[in-house]
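re: ur question from earlier - yeah i can do the single chain one, its not a big deal. heres the input i used so u can compare w yours
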Amino acid sequence: MKQDAVAAAATRVALLARPGTACDRLQAALGDAGADVVLVSDPAQTDAAGVRAAGAQAILIALAKAAQSADSVSGQGTLDVLRYGRLLQARQLVGVRGAGMAFDGLYYVKSVTHSIKPGQYKQNFSLSRNGLVSSVPKVVA
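and the output i got, formated as C-alpha cells:
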C-alpha cells in the first residue's frame, strides 16, 4: 500500500538531453530517484508545446559543454538596423525569440560592431547568458 502511494506521487520529468551515454545515465538516475520520466528529447529539437503535451511537472536540461563555462549559451549574428528599427547596444539585455524553448529568452550583449554603407546599416553582435531555459516566461516584441 505504501509503495502505491509513492508511485502515485512520482514527479513527472521531461529530460532534455542529446542522445548518448550521458542521457541514458541521467534517465536511469531519475528512475532510481523515483521520478517518472515522461519525455526524453534533444533540447534543440523540443518546444514548449511538446513538454506541455507530455504533462511534465519538472524539466531537466542537460548539455555537457554547458557545465564547462560560465556562459552556458552564446551566439553571434548580424542585424540589419534599418529593418530591425533600433540599435543594439553592448552591455545591455536583448530578447531572443524563435530559437527553441531551451534558447529563447534574455541575453547579455557582449559586443557590437557597426558596418555603415550608403543605404545600409548593419551590426555584428555577440550574445551570451549563463543558463538554459529562460528566466522570463515570454520575450515581448
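The beta strands are 12-17, 36-41, 58-62, 73-80, 93-96, 105-117, 120-129. not sure if urs matches, ping me
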